[in-house]
């Protein structure tokens, strides 16, 4: 079935969404920037966000390291205590986990929610079992943020300086010499590199423009000049990508940093960090954590053995029971000593490091990382960093700020923000929004002053796709360079790079059965079986063509639709999709 033969090929369609009753800009304008509104916003966000969710285990496999297990689960069967549908995301990484009957406790160390997989670190000898249910709570980021805010008398000066286009422009004065840019940067990237020497700057990086590479070059230049760098992003995966890019940029400068000079607090997700021997110097923090975890696990196991022997010893064996009690006290003393030593060693690692790369949540939660000063702070994916997190970052002693991101992409993810309220103002308004990039006039002024540099050359999209994206979101400034992918030249496939296929106008594939005429609302966004059936037909047509040897990506903005697509297309049994 050629679903595009409906007269829609190459057509551009525009539509208008109904404006919300209160736009985020109106809410922000009506919310004063005060310590009191920040505390209230954190309280409102915590009320909704910190609820534990219940997960049912489908399959469990040990990972070869004591206490670590790979767990598979069905995303559709994740729910709150009251039975309402819920979903897991990266906010649950490092969150506490407990089997519903109390048989074991532990923590989530890694999660891929769409795929239904996570890694559990269990602190007891009882291992998780299939069909068991356990509760997992979000990482206590908001609790730490609230505790920090409770000690404030006034908002950090740098946070106020980074808010509002006029404040940002006045703050963004030249501060550091950056030296010549490294080879391989494009003209706009060189401009952003030079701006990285200001007191504040923004690398505005649309998709495929090399934002991470540019920010890594800025970080490496500061490190080469002897300055300390804080590099943060919103997720573990994004931090890993930035960290690897910084390491590559340092190598490109022949800058050899000793082990411990660059640390990665938190849990790396990128396999290249764990599997590449050339990256071992980046894992001092993780290796230290694991070493103490093994020592503490051995102490806990010894405690269990002593407790078991004590329970089995008859009351008449007074000498043996006394010796066991003494042994139990010694083990407990050793366990507490290990925990104290761990805190000291991690604090020393953080203080001695020249570059710290971590998530915004880990920064807020770790006194060792968040309690020291930095010459330069780089905030990657700043369009997703809420104003509350920016405020916490600005609470550290930072000499200069470089924000990287795209104000036209995803805003911060917030659970407690409604149509109105301070939670929406503090958690739905990003660091880039705060700087004024949402306003075209303010954005143009900041660009003219050199405080904001748009990376305007992209290599990821075909020119026709880039043109639509550029005209819609980037005032026609975004253009293509290099040789991006081109559409396959197949008999049953259109020659255009961008094709609109309205599912409602397509004939349903044979055997598809009754399909809904329009999208339906589901737990996590809209879902449409007809669209999924059309997508499968398109993929099937591609795979059936002998001239096509490439791979296919099928994406959806909604988790529920993505799961339906995965289920629908899985029947094709292809590893190329």
Structural class of the helix and strand makeup? alpha/beta
Strand content range? 5-15%
In order across it, which strands form the biggest sheet?
10-11-9-12-13-8-14
Low-confidence stretches: 1-20
User: What fraction, in percent, of the residue positions are helical?
Assistant: 25-40%
Q: Count the E strands.
A: 18
Anisotropy-based shape = globular
Mean pLDDT: 88
Q: For the terminal residues, how far apart are their CA atoms?
A: 18 Å
Q: What is the alpha-carbon Rg in Å?
A: 26 Å
Taking the sheet with the most strands, its summary is: 7 strands, parallel
SS element count, helices: 20
Task: Give a quick summary of the entry.
The protein has helices at residues 24-29, 35-49, 141-150, 157-161, 165-171, 187-195, 211-224, 236-252, 271-275, 284-312, 318-352, 360-365, 367-370, 387-394, 422-427, 431-434, 440-448, 463-473, 529-544, 559-570; strands at 53-62, 68-73, 79-80, 96-99, 105-112, 117-122, 133-136, 200-204, 229-233, 262-263, 355-359, 374-379, 398-405, 452-454, 457-458, 479-480, 520-522, 525-527.
């Amino acid at each position: 079935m050629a679903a595009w033969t409906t007269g829609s090929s190459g057509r551009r369609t525009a539509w208008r969404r109904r404006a919300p009753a209160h736009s985020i800009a109106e809410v922000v304008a009506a919310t004063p920037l005060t310590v009191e509104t920040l505390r209230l916003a954190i309280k409102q966000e915590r009320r909704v966000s910190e609820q534990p969710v219940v997960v049912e285990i489908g399959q469990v496999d040990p990972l070869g390291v004591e206490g670590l297990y790979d767990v598979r689960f069905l995303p559709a069967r994740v729910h709150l205590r009251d039975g309402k549908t819920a979903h897991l995301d990266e906010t649950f990484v490092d969150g506490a986990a407990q089997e519903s009957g109390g048989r074991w406790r532990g923590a989530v160390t890694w999660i891929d929610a769409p795929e239904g997989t996570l890694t559990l670190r269990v602190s007891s000898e009882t291992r998780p079992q299939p069909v068991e249910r356990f509760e997992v709570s979000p990482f206590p980021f908001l609790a730490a943020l609230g505790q920090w805010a409770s000690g404030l008398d006034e908002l950090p000066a740098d946070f106020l300086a980074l808010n509002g286009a006029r404040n940002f422009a006045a703050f963004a004065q030249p501060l550091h010499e950056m030296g010549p840019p490294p080879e391989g940067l494009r003209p706009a990237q060189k401009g952003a590199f030079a701006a990285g020497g200001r007191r504040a700057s923004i690398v505005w990086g649309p998709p495929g423009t090399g934002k991470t590479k540019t920010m890594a070059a800025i970080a490496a230049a500061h490190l080469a000049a002897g300055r300390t760098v804080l590099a943060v992003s919103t997720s573990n995966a994004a931090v890993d990508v930035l960290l690897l890019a910084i390491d590559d940029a340092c190598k490109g400068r022949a800058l050899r940093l000793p082990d411990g000079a660059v640390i990665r607090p938190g849990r790396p997700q990128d396999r290249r960090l764990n599997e590449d021997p050339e990256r071992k110097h980046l894992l001092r923090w993780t290796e230290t954590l694991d070493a103490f975890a093994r020592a503490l696990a051995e102490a806990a196991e010894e405690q269990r053995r002593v407790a078991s022997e004590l329970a089995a010893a008859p009351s008449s064996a007074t000498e043996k029971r006394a010796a066991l009690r003494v042994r139990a006290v010694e083990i407990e003393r050793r366990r507490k000593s290990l925990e104290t030593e761990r805190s000291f060693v991690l604090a020393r690692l953080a203080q001695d490091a020249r570059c710290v790369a971590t998530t915004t949540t880990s920064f807020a939660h770790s006194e060792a990382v968040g309690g020291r000063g930095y010459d330069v702070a780089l905030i990657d994916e700043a369009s997703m960093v809420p104003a509350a997190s920016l405020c916490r970052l600005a609470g550290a002693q930072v000499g200069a700020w470089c924000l990287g991101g795209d104000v036209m992409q995803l805003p911060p993810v917030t659970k407690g923000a409604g149509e109105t309220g301070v939670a929406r103002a503090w958690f739905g308004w990003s660091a880039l929004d705060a700087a004024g990039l949402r306003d075209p006039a303010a954005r143009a002024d900041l660009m003219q002053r050199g405080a904001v540099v748009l990376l305007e050359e992209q290599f990821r999209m075909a020119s026709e796709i880039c043109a639509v994206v550029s005209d819609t979101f980037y005032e026609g400034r975004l253009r293509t360079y290099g040789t991006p992918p081109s559409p396959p030249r197949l008999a049953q496939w259109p020659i255009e790079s961008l094709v609109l296929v309205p599912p409602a106008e397509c004939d349903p594939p044979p055997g598809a059965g009754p399909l809904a005429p329009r999208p339906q609302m589901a737990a996590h966004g809209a879902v449409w079986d007809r669209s999924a059936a059309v997508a499968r037909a398109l993929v099937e047509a591609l795979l059936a063509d002998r001239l096509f040897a490439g791979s296919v990506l099928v994406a959806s903005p909604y988790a529920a639709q993505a799961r339906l697509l995965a289920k629908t297309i899985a029947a094709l049994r292809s590893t190329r999709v």
